[in-house]
Amino acid sequence: MQKKDIDWSKLGFGYMKTDWRYSRIWKDGSWQEGGLTDKAEVTISECAGALQYAQTGFEGLKVYETKKGEIVAFRPDLNAERLQRTCDRLVMPKISTGDFIDALDQLVKANLGYVPPYGSGATLYIRPFIYGCGPVIGVAPSPSYEFRMFCTPVGPYFKGGVKPIRIMLSDYDRAAPHGTGDIKAGLNYAMSLYAGEAAHKAGFSENMYLDAATRTYVEETGGANFIFITRDGRKVITPKSPSILPSITRRSLMVVARDYLGLEVEERPVRFDEVSSFAEVGLCGTAAVISPVGQIHTKDGDVDVPSGMQEMGPVLTRLRETITGIQMGEIEAPEGWIHRIC
Ligand code: PLP
Ligand code: COI
Protein backbone atom coordinates (compact mmCIF):
# COMPACT_ATOMS: atom_id res chain seq x y z
CA MET A 1 0.00 0.00 0.00
CA GLN A 2 1.14 3.52 -0.79
CA LYS A 3 2.70 5.21 2.23
CA LYS A 4 1.06 8.40 3.45
CA ASP A 5 2.85 11.62 2.73
CA ILE A 6 4.38 12.08 6.18
CA ASP A 7 7.81 13.45 7.08
CA TRP A 8 8.70 10.41 9.22
CA SER A 9 11.98 11.86 10.46
CA LYS A 10 10.17 14.84 12.02
CA LEU A 11 7.73 12.78 14.08
CA GLY A 12 7.79 13.08 17.85
CA PHE A 13 5.70 11.01 20.23
CA GLY A 14 2.28 12.46 19.41
CA TYR A 15 -1.19 11.51 18.26
CA MET A 16 -2.03 11.56 14.58
CA LYS A 17 -5.51 10.54 13.49
CA THR A 18 -5.25 7.57 11.13
CA ASP A 19 -7.97 6.17 8.85
CA TRP A 20 -9.29 3.24 10.89
CA ARG A 21 -9.58 2.02 14.47
CA TYR A 22 -11.01 -1.18 15.96
CA SER A 23 -13.99 -1.13 18.31
CA ARG A 24 -15.88 -3.81 20.19
CA ILE A 25 -18.65 -3.33 22.77
CA TRP A 26 -19.40 -5.47 25.82
CA LYS A 27 -22.99 -5.29 27.01
CA ASP A 28 -25.66 -7.58 28.50
CA GLY A 29 -22.92 -9.82 29.81
CA SER A 30 -20.95 -10.52 26.63
CA TRP A 31 -18.74 -9.12 23.88
CA GLN A 32 -20.59 -8.12 20.72
CA GLU A 33 -19.11 -8.51 17.24
CA GLY A 34 -16.17 -6.12 16.82
CA GLY A 35 -14.86 -4.37 13.74
CA LEU A 36 -13.18 -1.37 12.19
CA THR A 37 -14.65 2.11 12.23
CA ASP A 38 -13.50 5.40 10.74
CA LYS A 39 -15.00 7.37 13.65
CA ALA A 40 -12.18 8.67 15.81
CA GLU A 41 -14.55 10.18 18.38
CA VAL A 42 -16.50 8.24 21.01
CA THR A 43 -19.89 9.16 22.46
CA ILE A 44 -20.57 7.80 25.92
CA SER A 45 -22.90 8.41 28.87
CA GLU A 46 -22.10 11.48 30.94
CA CYS A 47 -22.24 9.03 33.84
CA ALA A 48 -19.82 6.49 32.29
CA GLY A 49 -17.69 4.47 34.70
CA ALA A 50 -14.55 5.72 32.91
CA LEU A 51 -15.51 9.36 33.50
CA GLN A 52 -16.80 9.05 37.06
CA TYR A 53 -14.54 6.45 38.64
CA ALA A 54 -11.65 6.19 36.16
CA GLN A 55 -12.55 2.65 35.17
CA THR A 56 -10.18 2.50 32.23
CA GLY A 57 -7.01 0.62 31.37
CA PHE A 58 -4.69 0.66 28.37
CA GLU A 59 -1.74 -0.96 26.65
CA GLY A 60 1.01 0.24 24.34
CA LEU A 61 2.96 -1.70 21.72
CA LYS A 62 4.74 -1.04 18.46
CA VAL A 63 4.54 -2.29 14.89
CA TYR A 64 7.57 -2.19 12.60
CA GLU A 65 8.39 -2.53 8.93
CA THR A 66 11.31 -4.94 8.79
CA LYS A 67 14.33 -4.99 6.55
CA LYS A 68 12.52 -7.53 4.33
CA GLY A 69 9.44 -5.29 4.09
CA GLU A 70 7.26 -7.35 6.40
CA ILE A 71 4.97 -5.67 8.92
CA VAL A 72 5.44 -7.14 12.39
CA ALA A 73 4.49 -6.57 16.03
CA PHE A 74 6.79 -7.21 18.98
CA ARG A 75 5.42 -9.71 21.53
CA PRO A 76 1.76 -8.58 21.34
CA ASP A 77 0.69 -11.66 23.32
CA LEU A 78 2.36 -10.13 26.39
CA ASN A 79 0.38 -6.91 25.97
CA ALA A 80 -2.81 -8.95 25.71
CA GLU A 81 -1.92 -10.80 28.92
CA ARG A 82 -1.10 -7.60 30.80
CA LEU A 83 -4.36 -6.02 29.64
CA GLN A 84 -6.18 -9.08 30.97
CA ARG A 85 -4.59 -8.53 34.39
CA THR A 86 -5.53 -4.86 34.24
CA CYS A 87 -9.12 -5.83 33.43
CA ASP A 88 -9.25 -8.26 36.34
CA ARG A 89 -8.04 -5.61 38.77
CA LEU A 90 -10.38 -2.91 37.43
CA VAL A 91 -13.34 -5.32 37.25
CA MET A 92 -13.69 -5.05 33.48
CA PRO A 93 -14.40 -7.87 31.02
CA LYS A 94 -11.30 -9.39 29.42
CA ILE A 95 -10.37 -9.69 25.75
CA SER A 96 -8.76 -13.02 24.90
CA THR A 97 -5.23 -13.04 23.50
CA GLY A 98 -6.56 -14.39 20.19
CA ASP A 99 -9.16 -11.62 19.88
CA PHE A 100 -6.57 -8.99 20.84
CA ILE A 101 -4.21 -10.16 18.10
CA ASP A 102 -7.04 -10.41 15.58
CA ALA A 103 -7.98 -6.76 16.34
CA LEU A 104 -4.32 -5.76 15.95
CA ASP A 105 -4.05 -7.49 12.57
CA GLN A 106 -7.24 -5.85 11.29
CA LEU A 107 -6.20 -2.41 12.56
CA VAL A 108 -2.72 -2.49 11.07
CA LYS A 109 -3.79 -3.94 7.69
CA ALA A 110 -6.36 -1.14 7.40
CA ASN A 111 -3.75 1.55 8.17
CA LEU A 112 -0.74 0.19 6.27
CA GLY A 113 0.00 3.58 4.74
CA TYR A 114 0.82 4.87 8.23
CA VAL A 115 3.44 2.22 9.05
CA PRO A 116 6.72 4.16 8.96
CA PRO A 117 9.21 2.81 6.41
CA TYR A 118 12.11 0.61 7.51
CA GLY A 119 15.06 2.74 8.49
CA SER A 120 13.03 5.93 9.01
CA GLY A 121 13.52 5.86 12.79
CA ALA A 122 9.75 6.05 13.30
CA THR A 123 7.36 3.22 14.24
CA LEU A 124 3.62 2.64 14.43
CA TYR A 125 2.45 2.91 18.04
CA ILE A 126 -0.64 0.88 18.91
CA ARG A 127 -2.90 1.94 21.76
CA PRO A 128 -5.41 -0.71 22.88
CA PHE A 129 -7.71 0.21 25.77
CA ILE A 130 -10.86 -0.87 27.58
CA TYR A 131 -13.12 1.47 29.50
CA GLY A 132 -16.49 1.53 31.22
CA CYS A 133 -18.85 3.43 28.90
CA GLY A 134 -22.22 2.71 30.56
CA PRO A 135 -23.81 4.82 33.33
CA VAL A 136 -22.96 4.05 36.94
CA ILE A 137 -23.73 6.44 39.79
CA GLY A 138 -23.06 4.30 42.89
CA VAL A 139 -19.45 3.19 43.23
CA ALA A 140 -19.67 -0.01 41.16
CA PRO A 141 -18.40 -1.46 37.88
CA SER A 142 -19.93 -0.06 34.69
CA PRO A 143 -22.72 -2.08 33.00
CA SER A 144 -21.03 -1.80 29.58
CA TYR A 145 -17.52 -1.43 28.06
CA GLU A 146 -15.73 -0.58 24.89
CA PHE A 147 -12.49 -2.24 23.79
CA ARG A 148 -10.82 0.03 21.31
CA MET A 149 -7.51 -0.01 19.51
CA PHE A 150 -6.07 2.81 17.45
CA CYS A 151 -2.65 3.49 15.98
CA THR A 152 -0.48 6.51 15.38
CA PRO A 153 2.97 6.82 13.79
CA VAL A 154 5.54 8.02 16.32
CA GLY A 155 9.14 9.13 16.63
CA PRO A 156 11.24 9.30 19.83
CA TYR A 157 9.48 9.63 23.20
CA PHE A 158 12.04 12.08 24.56
CA LYS A 159 12.95 15.16 22.56
CA GLY A 160 16.52 14.84 21.40
CA GLY A 161 16.19 11.14 20.55
CA VAL A 162 18.90 9.10 22.23
CA LYS A 163 20.66 12.01 23.92
CA PRO A 164 20.92 11.51 27.70
CA ILE A 165 18.21 13.23 29.72
CA ARG A 166 18.04 14.76 33.18
CA ILE A 167 15.47 13.35 35.55
CA MET A 168 14.35 14.32 39.04
CA LEU A 169 13.86 12.33 42.22
CA SER A 170 10.14 12.75 42.87
CA ASP A 171 8.50 13.69 46.16
CA TYR A 172 5.39 11.84 45.01
CA ASP A 173 4.50 8.20 44.41
CA ARG A 174 3.76 6.96 40.93
CA ALA A 175 1.03 4.41 41.53
CA ALA A 176 -2.34 5.47 42.82
CA PRO A 177 -4.11 3.03 45.21
CA HIS A 178 -2.18 0.27 46.94
CA GLY A 179 -1.55 -2.70 44.69
CA THR A 180 -2.29 -1.13 41.32
CA GLY A 181 1.24 -0.14 40.34
CA ASP A 182 1.80 -3.18 38.20
CA ILE A 183 -1.18 -2.72 35.88
CA LYS A 184 -1.81 -0.06 33.25
CA ALA A 185 -4.74 1.67 34.94
CA GLY A 186 -5.59 5.13 33.61
CA LEU A 187 -5.88 6.29 37.21
CA ASN A 188 -2.20 5.59 37.90
CA TYR A 189 -1.21 7.86 35.05
CA ALA A 190 -3.67 10.57 36.10
CA MET A 191 -2.13 10.49 39.57
CA SER A 192 1.35 10.90 38.09
CA LEU A 193 0.48 13.99 36.02
CA TYR A 194 1.02 16.43 38.88
CA ALA A 195 4.47 15.04 39.63
CA GLY A 196 5.26 14.90 35.91
CA GLU A 197 4.38 18.56 35.47
CA ALA A 198 6.47 19.47 38.53
CA ALA A 199 9.47 17.76 36.93
CA HIS A 200 8.92 19.41 33.54
CA LYS A 201 8.53 22.88 35.08
CA ALA A 202 11.79 22.37 36.93
CA GLY A 203 13.48 21.49 33.61
CA PHE A 204 13.62 17.69 33.90
CA SER A 205 12.33 15.13 31.42
CA GLU A 206 10.99 12.60 33.91
CA ASN A 207 10.67 11.59 37.56
CA MET A 208 12.42 8.80 39.37
CA TYR A 209 9.89 7.37 41.82
CA LEU A 210 10.90 5.58 45.00
CA ASP A 211 8.94 2.90 46.81
CA ALA A 212 6.02 4.53 48.62
CA ALA A 213 6.40 2.57 51.87
CA THR A 214 10.04 3.32 52.73
CA ARG A 215 11.30 5.76 50.07
CA THR A 216 14.48 3.73 49.93
CA TYR A 217 14.25 1.67 46.74
CA VAL A 218 14.10 2.77 43.12
CA GLU A 219 10.78 2.03 41.43
CA GLU A 220 10.44 3.44 37.89
CA THR A 221 9.56 6.62 36.02
CA GLY A 222 6.17 7.86 34.81
CA GLY A 223 6.36 5.77 31.64
CA ALA A 224 9.39 3.44 31.77
CA ASN A 225 11.36 0.99 33.94
CA PHE A 226 15.00 1.47 34.92
CA ILE A 227 18.03 -0.56 33.93
CA PHE A 228 21.47 -0.01 35.40
CA ILE A 229 24.89 -1.10 34.14
CA THR A 230 27.65 -1.86 36.62
CA ARG A 231 31.02 -0.09 36.39
CA ASP A 232 32.77 -3.17 34.99
CA GLY A 233 30.27 -3.13 32.11
CA ARG A 234 29.41 -6.79 32.71
CA LYS A 235 26.09 -6.72 34.50
CA VAL A 236 22.59 -5.36 33.88
CA ILE A 237 20.57 -4.73 37.03
CA THR A 238 16.89 -3.87 37.08
CA PRO A 239 14.67 -3.09 40.07
CA LYS A 240 12.39 -5.82 41.35
CA SER A 241 9.22 -4.47 42.91
CA PRO A 242 5.59 -5.57 43.00
CA SER A 243 4.48 -1.99 42.46
CA ILE A 244 6.16 -1.22 39.12
CA LEU A 245 4.80 -2.02 35.70
CA PRO A 246 6.23 -5.33 34.47
CA SER A 247 7.75 -3.80 31.34
CA ILE A 248 7.77 -6.06 28.31
CA THR A 249 10.81 -4.19 26.98
CA ARG A 250 12.68 -4.72 30.25
CA ARG A 251 11.81 -8.42 30.38
CA SER A 252 12.98 -8.75 26.76
CA LEU A 253 16.17 -6.78 27.39
CA MET A 254 17.17 -9.07 30.21
CA VAL A 255 17.00 -12.01 27.78
CA VAL A 256 18.88 -10.04 25.11
CA ALA A 257 21.58 -9.03 27.62
CA ARG A 258 22.11 -12.62 28.75
CA ASP A 259 21.62 -14.61 25.56
CA TYR A 260 22.84 -12.21 22.86
CA LEU A 261 25.45 -10.11 24.67
CA GLY A 262 26.69 -12.58 27.29
CA LEU A 263 26.09 -10.16 30.16
CA GLU A 264 25.05 -11.07 33.68
CA VAL A 265 21.53 -10.01 34.57
CA GLU A 266 20.04 -9.35 37.97
CA GLU A 267 16.53 -8.39 38.99
CA ARG A 268 16.52 -7.27 42.62
CA PRO A 269 15.52 -4.37 44.85
CA VAL A 270 17.84 -1.44 44.07
CA ARG A 271 18.43 1.14 46.81
CA PHE A 272 18.55 4.74 45.68
CA ASP A 273 21.87 5.21 47.46
CA GLU A 274 23.42 2.57 45.16
CA VAL A 275 22.56 4.42 41.98
CA SER A 276 25.69 6.56 42.06
CA SER A 277 27.76 3.38 41.85
CA PHE A 278 26.47 2.45 38.38
CA ALA A 279 28.18 3.37 35.10
CA GLU A 280 25.07 3.74 32.95
CA VAL A 281 21.41 4.39 33.73
CA GLY A 282 18.68 3.77 31.19
CA LEU A 283 14.92 4.03 30.92
CA CYS A 284 13.26 1.26 28.99
CA GLY A 285 9.79 0.83 27.62
CA THR A 286 7.83 0.58 24.39
CA ALA A 287 7.75 4.35 23.94
CA ALA A 288 11.17 5.03 25.52
CA VAL A 289 12.91 2.01 23.82
CA ILE A 290 16.14 2.63 25.78
CA SER A 291 16.74 6.23 26.71
CA PRO A 292 19.91 7.11 28.61
CA VAL A 293 19.84 9.14 31.82
CA GLY A 294 22.77 11.50 32.37
CA GLN A 295 21.81 13.07 35.67
CA ILE A 296 19.38 12.55 38.55
CA HIS A 297 18.50 15.70 40.42
CA THR A 298 17.76 15.49 44.13
CA LYS A 299 17.25 18.14 46.82
CA ASP A 300 20.48 16.94 48.39
CA GLY A 301 22.55 17.33 45.25
CA ASP A 302 22.75 15.83 41.79
CA VAL A 303 23.84 12.34 40.89
CA ASP A 304 25.91 12.59 37.71
CA VAL A 305 25.90 9.29 35.85
CA PRO A 306 29.49 8.46 34.77
CA SER A 307 28.48 7.82 31.13
CA GLY A 308 27.67 11.55 31.04
CA MET A 309 25.34 13.93 29.24
CA GLN A 310 26.98 13.69 25.82
CA GLU A 311 25.90 10.32 24.50
CA MET A 312 24.48 6.94 25.43
CA GLY A 313 26.96 4.66 27.20
CA PRO A 314 28.46 1.64 25.41
CA VAL A 315 26.45 -1.15 27.03
CA LEU A 316 23.09 0.59 26.68
CA THR A 317 24.01 1.32 23.05
CA ARG A 318 24.66 -2.37 22.37
CA LEU A 319 21.43 -3.34 24.11
CA ARG A 320 19.47 -0.79 22.13
CA GLU A 321 21.01 -1.84 18.82
CA THR A 322 20.32 -5.49 19.53
CA ILE A 323 16.70 -5.11 20.59
CA THR A 324 15.84 -2.73 17.74
CA GLY A 325 17.70 -5.07 15.36
CA ILE A 326 15.46 -7.90 16.53
CA GLN A 327 12.34 -5.75 16.16
CA MET A 328 13.31 -4.60 12.67
CA GLY A 329 14.22 -8.09 11.44
CA GLU A 330 17.98 -7.45 11.19
CA ILE A 331 18.82 -9.93 13.95
CA GLU A 332 17.13 -13.27 14.44
CA ALA A 333 14.54 -13.09 17.21
CA PRO A 334 13.95 -15.63 19.95
CA GLU A 335 11.12 -18.01 19.14
CA GLY A 336 7.69 -16.38 19.41
CA TRP A 337 8.82 -12.76 19.83
CA ILE A 338 7.82 -11.49 16.41
CA HIS A 339 4.22 -11.60 15.24
CA ARG A 340 4.01 -11.21 11.46
CA ILE A 341 0.95 -9.20 10.39
CA CYS A 342 1.61 -9.13 6.66
N1 PLP B 1 6.47 1.65 33.31
C1 PLP B 1 5.43 2.44 33.02
C2 PLP B 1 4.82 3.23 34.11
C3 PLP B 1 4.94 2.50 31.71
O1 PLP B 1 3.90 3.30 31.41
C4 PLP B 1 5.56 1.74 30.71
C5 PLP B 1 5.06 1.75 29.34
O2 PLP B 1 4.29 0.95 28.94
C6 PLP B 1 6.64 0.93 31.06
C7 PLP B 1 7.08 0.91 32.36
C8 PLP B 1 7.33 0.08 30.04
O3 PLP B 1 6.57 -1.05 29.72
P1 PLP B 1 6.65 -1.75 28.31
O4 PLP B 1 8.07 -2.09 28.09
O5 PLP B 1 5.79 -2.95 28.45
O6 PLP B 1 6.13 -0.77 27.32
C1 COI C 1 4.39 2.86 26.50
O1 COI C 1 5.62 2.86 26.47
O2 COI C 1 3.71 2.21 25.69
C2 COI C 1 3.68 3.62 27.51
O3 COI C 1 2.55 3.30 27.74
C3 COI C 1 4.39 4.73 28.17
C4 COI C 1 3.67 6.03 28.08
C5 COI C 1 3.56 6.55 26.68
C6 COI C 1 2.36 5.99 28.79
Write up this protein.
With 342 residues, the chain is of the alpha+beta class. The chain folds into two domains: 147 residues, Aminotransferase class 4, branched-chain amino acid transferase, N-terminal domain (D-amino Acid Aminotransferase, Chain A, domain 1); 163 residues, D-amino Acid Aminotransferase, Chain A, domain 2. 22% of the residues lie in helices and 26% in strands. Helix 2 packs across helix 3. The N and C termini lie close together (11 Å). The structure holds pyridoxal-5'-phosphate and 2-OXO-4-methylpentanoic acid. The site of 2-OXO-4-methylpentanoic acid has 5 residues, from loops.
List keywords for this structure.
globular; alpha+beta; binds pyridoxal-5'-phosphate; D-amino Acid Aminotransferase, Chain A, domain 1; eight-stranded mixed sheet; D-amino Acid Aminotransferase, Chain A, domain 2; 342 residues; 2 domains; nine-stranded antiparallel sheet; 17 strands; binds 2-OXO-4-methylpentanoic acid; single chain; 22% helix
